[in-house]
Write a structure and sequence with these properties.
Number of strands: 0
Oligomer: single chain
Number of domains: 1
Strand content: under 5%
Largest sheet: none
Helix content: 55-70%
Order of helices and strands: HHHH
Structural class: mainly alpha
Length: 108
Amino acid sequence: MINIQNDELIRELIRQDLKHNQLVKGLDNLDLDAGHRHHLGIMDLVKRLMEVPEHLENDFLDTYMGYMDRCLDYPISSLGEELRVLAEEGYEGLNKLFYLKSQSENDQ
């Protein structure tokens, strides 16, 4: 049985979603309209694993998709190793979002 830490799993899911988005955005750039036909639902898995509260779902979506939009700034490769840095940045950005929001709520 494979034992993987939750944060490591989330980072890997984000990286795989970035890789998938490279493909989808590339197909969309060729006017093949792939974005609406090939949704994998990885963001929903990440949201569940990170236990995103309902009141932060929109902030989560905006932040997550902001990182997805940057996927074409990175080289396309068979394993997507170049995306590891962006996936890490995305994971840290999402954690920071939750931290800042919880601090803001505690201050009120």
